[in-house]
Amino acid sequence: MIIKKYFEKLRQAPLFNGISAEDLESLLDCVSWELKTVRKNEVLLLAGEKPSSIGVVLSGLLHIVKEDYNGNQTLVASVLPRDTFGEAVCYADVDESPVTIFAAEESTVMLLKYDYLVHVCPHVCKYHQQLIENMLHMVAMKNLYLQDRMEIISIKSIRAKVLYYLKSLASKQGRDVVLPFNQTKLAEYLCVDRSALAHELGRMKKDGLIDYRKNVFTLNS
């Protein structure tokens, strides 16, 4: 079965934390899922649509964006391999998704029907209860993430925004951090002008605060 190619990545996904390999195989037989390869820029969930699936990225990169009334997009988050997407809007039970999710590069994802995940199956499988607990934990973590994002947006200077964001990544990755997007998307994420960001990054590099090459940054302080 083709899913065996991605089985280890699934086991490492937070959605399946605490579920053994044997139980994960049984769980996949119990729920409704689809393996899908999406092309670059292909949309998985369009703003305004009713969400019905929770997804796990197996390869590639997804972007979650929000569009304003003028059509301007703001990058909300990037979704990397083993990360999950769609759980927050599914749990909120909204009729219209406030965000669009699309592939930033060719990606492979597993889509799991929300209704099959959130309700304990007739067999009351122990791993199904663990799955529900994992989803609740992820929704809580997404809420903390959004609070952190609001903190970044509220910061006035571009330099302070950049340092705050890089230090938050460094706490997980170490002194050298890899951004999940390019500088254009970084500007969107920080809610700043692209040219102004490029200028400030150059000044920060000259001042010895950071070093960078493409999307790899080193914090010097």
Write a structural description.
By secondary structure, this protein is of the alpha+beta class. The protein is 42% helix and 24% strand. The chain contains eight helices and eleven strands. The protein has helices spanning 7-12, 21-30, 87-91, 114-118, 126-154, 158-173, 183-190, 194-206; strands spanning 33-38, 43-45, 53-59, 62-67, 73-79, 84-85, 100-103, 107-113, 176-178, 210-213, 216-219. The strands form three sheets. Strands 1-8-3-6 form a four-stranded antiparallel beta sheet. A hairpin with a 5-residue loop joins strand 4 (62-67) and strand 5.
Element layout with pairings:
Layout: H1 7-12, H2 21-30, E1 33-38, E2 43-45, E3 53-59, E4 62-67, E5 73-79, E6 84-85, H3 87-91, E7 100-103, E8 107-113, H4 114-118, H5 126-154, H6 158-173, E9 176-178, H7 183-190, H8 194-206, E10 210-213, E11 216-219
Please state the average pLDDT score: 88
Order of helices and strands: HHEEEEEEHEEHHHEHHEE
Total number of strands: 11
Largest beta sheet, briefly? Answer: 4 strands, antiparallel
Distance between the termini: 49 Å
Task: Write down the overall geometry.
Answer: globular
Helix content: 40-55%
The fraction of residues in strands falls at 15-25%
Rg (C-alpha, Å): 19 Å
Low-confidence stretches: none
- Tally of helical segments: 8
Query: Strand order within the widest sheet?
Result: 1-8-3-6
